[in-house]
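Suppose you are handed only these lines of text.
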Amino acid sequence: METVDFETDLSLFKYDNLEQLPPAYRDLAEAERAERIESARAELGDDVIILGHNYQRREIVEHADFIGDSYQLSKHAAEADADYVVFCGVTFMAESADIITDDDQTVILPSMEASCPMAGMAEALQVDAAWTELNEAADDDENIIPITYMNSYADLKAFCAEQGGLVCTSSNAHKAFEYAFERGDKVLFLPDKHLGDNTAHRLGMADATAEWDPWDPEAADAAEVADADIVLWDGYCQVHERFTERHVESFREAHPDGNVIVHPECRREVVEAADVAGSTSTICETVENADPGETWAIGTEIHLTNHLQRWHPEVEVLPLCGDACMDCNAMRQVDPNYLTWVLEGLADGIERNVVEVDPREKELAGLALERMLEV
Ligand code: 13P
Ligand code: SF4
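From them, the structure of the protein bound to iron/sulfur cluster can be written out as follows.
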């Protein structure tokens, strides 16, 4: 297989040059920490809002002004007047918030090690190299449109915009595909192959996909995948890949009247076996609207399942694969000690762990997000 050589300083963490937690903040007791967080917030007043993704732990979401999915949180950030947006989530979410907030708002990610591994599976530099290869392999008159899932870095969103593509969330991926096919002949979907596969299936295009890992010598090469209408980048979320069809079957055997809801980052056979598939906000709304006494198995990150059990004791909420359900290692990096540290810093006039997207990338990534809003 032909591969493209390029030099890069790719690293595990997108922002690895920023301050780490000082020792004095490492072992705070929960009660002291909660009190210090609230007192820093009181001092900062309307100057700060705290956003918490649905996968954050209890000790974080308890302090959040808004809890929600990745897209909802960015919208809240943009609608808020606060000077500081403390985003308790992962790097790509904080970047998205920075892209859509005003220039005078500052986005802070409490721990810079909160990097989603799936977003890291499609680095813009790698995609750029692979893109050249794919276009060379495709017929000259064929136009490929790249679509990237929200779970990607700003530079990849910018790359997609430059190539006529757009961003999507797990709720509007099907509409983004329709947008792309109205304007082009093929789609390159990044980085989550399962969301891409589930979306292709939903659109009746399950047979039109090809999975592509340009660096795997054993896998299909660019010439082979270029025949497919939908090329799926070989990225995935390990938290969601863990769920299997067998988990759904076991749950149904034990709870014949129960229901199953999963995130669309799960494998296709799991999504097909479930009753509902949707974003973390869809999962929250579904349990919120369930009748008392109903049983729901949740196929997503374990903290959200735990929150739903606490928030809706009238519904029986169970983790789809029991003790084997995982937490997200990236989300876990934002612990309440970090939250205390960044808030006390702000109260003292010190900005720590600011996420600031390069202006040119910001403009282009903003365009990719705007296109998403058009769909
Ligand atoms: P949502 O956009 O549904 O909140 O999902 C984000 C995520 O990281 C899922 O793994
Ligand atoms: Fe990334 Fe998966 Fe964690 Fe979501 S759950 S932030 S996709 S690693």
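What can we learn from it? Residues 54, 69-71, 151, 169-170, 237, 263, 265, 279-280 surround 1,3-dihydroxyacetonephosphate (ligand 1) (CB under 6 Å). Confidence is low (pLDDT under 50) at residues 1-12.
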